[in-house]
Amino acid sequence: LFPRCSVSQVPVAEGKSVQQTVELLTRKLEVLGAEKQGTFCVDCETYHTAASTIGTQGQTGKLMYVMHNSEYPLSCFALFESGPCLIADANFDILMVKLKGFFQNAKANKIETRGTRYQYCDFLVKVGTVTMGPSARGISVEVEYCPCVIANDCWSLLMEFMQSFMGSHAPGLPSVFGTKHDSIYSPSDTMVQYMELFNKIRKQQQVPVAGMR
């Protein structure tokens, strides 16, 4: 059985760096009484349809995201933006090398988040620094309410807890839950949220920030 979970981005506090904002968040968690429970990492590599297959078969180019999550060390997740999500074993990366005639790795697009796991009562919180290459690009916060397995049973409780340390930056209902209703939550739902978060951060990097000189 898998917990209910929310993955969201927290903006960098005014006048602070990414790392300082992460420290502010984790300090709030520790004041609440949350305890450190090790570290975590979620990474994502982008693969695009090889030019040769587009040219010969008349297909439009597609992006596939191959992701790993330290919570599921024996699994590899392969996602398309519009679905589905394939859960495979860790050897899937080797298979992708063999499929390079069909999918090519966009190496410059590798993105990951890593940071500290916290336990607070029935909640598991992961605050991470999102990086592309050598530079920090944003902050991710994942919150799980561990006892709950039905997608729509505990949102108000989850929201109340997130507001206690995220304030007005607590997220709205993730889009993945719009289709879940009373079905059981699964790891792929978490990975879809991370994929959406990473893509949002990638797009933010491509747009000039208003007010920057």
TrEMBL record:
**Which GO terms of type biological process are on file?**
regulation of transcription by RNA polymerase II
Coiled-coil stretches noted in the UniProt entry, renumbered to this chain: none
Cellular component terms, GO, for this chain's entry? mediator complex
Question: Which superkingdom does the taxonomy of this entry point to?
Answer: Eukaryota
* Protein name listed in UniProt: Mediator of RNA polymerase II transcription subunit 20
Q: What is its main location?
A: nucleus
Gene (name only)? Med20
Q: How does it assemble?
A: Component of the Mediator complex.
Task: Show which residues constitute the signal peptide.
Answer: none
What's this chain's function? Component of the Mediator complex, a coactivator involved in the regulated transcription of nearly all RNA polymerase II-dependent genes. Mediator functions as a bridge to convey information from gene-specific regulatory proteins to the basal RNA polymerase II transcription machinery. Mediator is recruited to promoters by direct interactions with regulatory proteins and serves as a scaffold for the assembly of a functional preinitiation complex with RNA polymerase II and the general transcription factors.
Localisation per UniProt entry: Nucleus
What is the native source organism of this protein? Eolophus roseicapilla
Task: Cite the GO molecular-function annotations of the record.
Answer: transcription coactivator activity
| Keyword vocabulary terms for this entry | Activator, Nucleus, Transcription, Transcription regulation
The record's similarity note reads: Belongs to the Mediator complex subunit 20 family.
